[in-house]
Design brief:
108 residues; 7 helices; elongated; mainly alpha
Length: 108
């Protein structure tokens, strides 16, 4: 693994801080939340059906499905996001692991 110089580390850390702040804005959160809670549609439908079996009230089932999708959606893994209980944020650890980075980033 290539070692970072102190300057490279500071630049990366500053970039990550700025990106996190942008992700925490309401506009970005609304957009990212919509994607994560609605995709893939077949997974959302499956979770909604499970929730409707537990509670036939459709509004409550929809709310519970949204909550589940925030932690169980395959989109989290695909987009390398994490949910901290309040915000959907980039999961920098996943970007740092070579085996999970796209081929063009790994240099393969």
């Amino acid at each position: 693994m290539v070692r970072e110089t102190p300057l490279e580390r500071r630049v990366r850390e500053e970039f990550q801080r700025e990106l996190l702040e942008e992700f925490k804005t309401p506009e970005t959160q609304d957009e990212v939340r919509q994607v994560v809670t609605q995709t893939p549609p077949e997974v959302r439908e499956q979770k909604l059906q499970q929730e409707l079996q537990v509670n036939p009230d459709e509004e409550i089932a929809e709310q519970n499905t949204d909550k589940r999708m925030l932690t169980e959606s395959p989109e989290l893994v695909r987009s390398k996001l994490r949910y901290d209980g309040e915000h959907l944020l980039p999961d920098f650890d996943k970007y740092e692991r070579k085996d999970t980075r796209p081929t063009w980033m790994r240099g393969d």
